[in-house]
Write a structure and sequence with these properties.
This protein is 42% helix and 8% strand. The chain is an alpha/beta fold. The two termini are 38 Å apart.
Length: 365
């Protein structure tokens, strides 16, 4: 059984502006290009538009054989955006479009919005009582117009189970890859991200924008330190050691790290460790104890605690639910990690800073 039908709902198909095209293209790029070596079957994508107007000479136009009726039979409905007139409150959403969204949700579809598409889900009442987000420039307006929505104004995306919303622009790509991760596993999502030359996984709680009062470096020392840490997750790590790699003092490193990523080094590293654990659960038959060591989580108990809190299921249940897909991909010639050997102990991990290993218990945020 595949991940199902993804219906991309395009409200404005005759005068699309650049941002509308961009967000529609993001969803189509992630779900519409089959990747049979990663998962077979892949998603089936339908571009759905209710517009029957003639194209205008100003914006872009989209023609499709699929209409609003196709939303009701989809497994996932994605609303990439709403027209600027709707966003600015100068025009209402088409009633038939709102009704189609309600019908799709009632039929059991997973409802997703990118950027300003949250206004469409909110108008349909699908965000009432739920956490949601949109582009940070529009979060205040979303909260004002739809007071029953719990608007998160600084996150990349919000996963509320069967309803998911993202901030603008590349945050939409993060959410789409997050959906692949949910449906097909961390390994498939990571491989797809590599092909798209983007970050494999940015947690939804990461900040939408960085603090521009912190000057950007002309070199890549921070990125190099993060790459080094990612390659040594099975080892105990300290802020001091990462700062030394970046050629900074621990205080400067911590400040620049948080300004750049929106996360503390501890939280970022925990996300990396859990991502490694997910991949190993999907692509190896290692026991949980070995996976906890390979991912730097220390003990199986600690891995289960953090994994369940972040992913929502135990490592064993996750393996049973998603691991078989990666093994099928391996049989078709994909490149999952099928074996793992503990590397020899490395030098240079000393330091007096706070240890970033999760092996000794819960990590602070």
């Amino acid at each position: 059984m595949g991940p199902g039908v993804v219906a991309i709902a395009v409200l404005n198909g005759t005068d699309m502006q650049v941002c509308e095209v961009y967000e529609t293209a993001i969803a189509n790029a992630v779900f519409g290009d089959p990747q049979p070596d990663l998962a077979d079957p892949w998603y089936e994508v339908k571009l759905c538009t209710g517009s029957r107007d003639e194209p205008t000479p100003h914006g872009f136009s989209l023609r499709s054989k699929h209409g609003l009726d196709d939303l009701v039979v989809a497994d996932t409905v994605i609303v990439p955006s709403v027209p600027d007139d709707v966003l600015q409150g100068r025009a209402p959403l088409a009633p038939e479009f709102v009704a189609a969204l309600r019908d799709a949700a009632a039929a059991g579809a997973r409802m997703v919005s990118l950027c300003s598409g949250a206004f469409a889900l909110a108008e349909a009442g699908l965000l009432d009582g739920r956490r949601a987000t949109t582009h940070w420039m529009h979060t205040a307006d979303l909260a004002k117009r739809y007071p029953r929505v719990q608007v998160e104004d600084a996150v990349l995306y919000v996963d509320d189970g069967d309803v998911l919303t993202s901030a603008g622009m590349t945050a939409g790509l993060d959410l789409c890859l997050h959906l692949v991760r949910r449906d097909l596993g961390a390994h498939v999502a990571g491989q797809l991200a590599r092909r798209m030359v983007v970050a494999g996984h940015r947690p939804g709680g990461q900040a939408q924008f960085v603090d521009l009062s912190v000057p950007e470096d002309d070199d890549d020392t921070l990125a190099m330190a993060m790459d080094w840490a990612s390659g040594n997750l099975d080892q105990p790590l300290t802020v001091d050691a990462m700062a030394k790699r970046a050629g900074m003092s621990p205080r400067t490193f911590f400040r620049k790290f948080q300004a750049t990523t929106g996360l503390t080094p501890l939280k970022w590293l925990l996300n990396q460790r859990l991502s490694r654990a997910q991949s190993l659960l999907e692509t190896t038959d290692l026991p949980i104890e070995r996976i906890s060591e390979a991912s730097g989580m220390g003990t199986a108990t600690n891995l289960r605690r953090h994994f369940t809190a972040q992913v929502g299921v135990t490592p064993t249940d996750y393996r049973h639910a998603l691991g078989f897909r990666a093994r099928r991909a391996a049989e078709r010639g994909a490149d999952p990690v099928t074996r793992w050997s503990a590397p020899a102990p490395r030098q240079g991990f000393g330091g007096t800073g706070k240890e970033l290993s999760a092996g000794q218990g819960p990590l602070p945020a």
